[in-house]
Amino acid sequence: MSMAALLATVVDTRALAETVVAAVASGIGITIVFAVAIFGAARFAELGREGRPAAALAYGALAVICGLAFAGAIVAGIIVMTSG
Amino acid sequence: MAPRVAVGFAAVLNFVGAFISLEVAATIASDVVDAGVVTPLVIFAGLVGAITWNLITWFFGLPSSSSHALIGGVVGSVVAAVGFEGVMGEGVLGKVLIPALVAPTVAFLVGGGAIIICYRVVGRQRPGPVTRGFRMGQVVSGGMLALAHGTNDAQKTMGVIALALIANGDLAQGSDPPFWVVVSAATAIALGTYTGGWRIIKTMGTRIIKMDSAQGFSAQGAGAAVILASSHYGFPLSTTHVISGGVMGAGAGKRLSAVRWGVAGNIVTAWLLTLPMAAAIGALAYGLTQLFGDGAVGPVVISAAGLALTAVMFARRIREPAPAPAG
């Protein structure tokens, strides 16, 4: 029996793989969403100062949407954790 | 956020986190050693092994994992008591050792990937608003990390107390820990964070890399994601190793030389030594306790010797501070 096959019999590879996928997806995904929210907020402030309200509004909307998505992802993560 | 408020915030979330899940406690109580062979003396010797190794690493300034020390101590004392047949090899390998390798690696990759993406997205923006934004985000990511820490670490204590209750005939094998055990473990971890958390926060925040707010956010997010996902599946991780992995990843993602690899090497060394050393001390403690028979004399003598040793170590450490880490 190869080492990989031996490990596969001992390790719950499905649970381990799901853990890795969940950690990577949530860790990277939430960071991207939050970084885009900050980007949107920074551009909103900058364009507002430059007197370009339409563009500023678009970036403001992007910031709000990503901020809400970030909050939603955190809440969803806690619900998944607590639901066992 | 002021340090005292931040530590209090983390302590509260540690407390709350302890109530989220019991999967890790179940793993400790049923998948690491055969609960049928565990006696109160085995638990005592296991705890002596874990505490002694924690004190030794603290004395020499090595960052180590209390979680692995706890598991190692219990495994060592079980081996001393009944031999290797009392250890559930598959559980130790599949639920402890493999996740112990995988989790910090994943945290490193997530922390590194996250910071690269952060810099790509906000790199051309003015630093002021970006720093303020990530500082606000750190309140959330730090809170999630504290929640994750409470979830995984408090459950290990619950698992060991559950083992002791099973050994004493107060709890059926396979049962969840009683509510008072959950509350006790939650309270202990919260008080521990509140009273001693700042030292660890300073170490993790400044000694491995010099962190900016985006790196802090990425490292905390990576650590929280890995620990919470692992807790959900019942893997008892070392939260120290996971957050260290996240911090190193966030440092390496910016610049490889930003990581103090000497400190990282010390962490890995302590990581490799913790399980076998705590197991060896746990086995030794069991053997020494047994010299005094099965009664209370052995634990009393070993506890007194342990307290005396601790007092000597504290006195020496007060006179001469811990050595600075390499790098």
Describe the fold and architecture.
The complex is a heterodimer of chains A (84) and B (327). Chain A has three helices and no strands. Chain A is elongated and about 65 Å long. The model of chain A has no long low-confidence stretch (mean pLDDT 87). Chain A has a domain at 31-84. Chain A has 84 residues and is an all-alpha fold. The two termini of chain A are 35 Å apart. Chain B has 327 residues and is mostly helical. Chain B has one domain (22-138, 207-319). Chain B contains eleven helices and no strands. The mean pLDDT of chain B is 85. Classes of the chains: A mainly alpha (84), B mainly alpha (327). Chains A and B meet through α2 and α3 of A and α5, α6 and α8 of B.
Low-confidence stretches of chain A: none
Mean pLDDT of chain B: 85
* Main sheet summary of chain A: none
Which class of secondary structure composition applies to the elements of chain A? mainly alpha
Kindly provide the radius of gyration of chain A, computed on alpha-carbon positions and rounded to a whole number of angstroms.
20 Å
What characteristic shape of chain A results from the CA principal axes? elongated
Q: What is the CA-atom radius of gyration of chain B, in angstroms?
A: 20 Å
Largest sheet of chain B at a glance?
none
> How many individual helices of chain A?
3
- Count the DSSP helices of chain B: 11
The SSE order of chain A reads: HHH
Strand content of chain B: under 5%
Beta-strand content estimate of chain A: under 5%
Output mean pLDDT of chain A: 87
Helix content of chain B: over 70%
Q: Name the quaternary structure.
A: heterodimer
Greatest interface by residues involved: A-B, 37 and 49 residues
Structural class of the helix and strand makeup of chain B?
Answer: mainly alpha
Architecture blueprint of SSEs:
The complex is a heterodimer of chains A (84) and B (327).
Chain A: H1 3-10, H2 13-49, H3 53-82
Chain B: H1 3-17, H2 23-30, H3 40-59, H4 66-82, H5 89-122, H6 127-167, H7 179-207, H8 213-232, H9 239-254, H10 261-290, H11 297-319
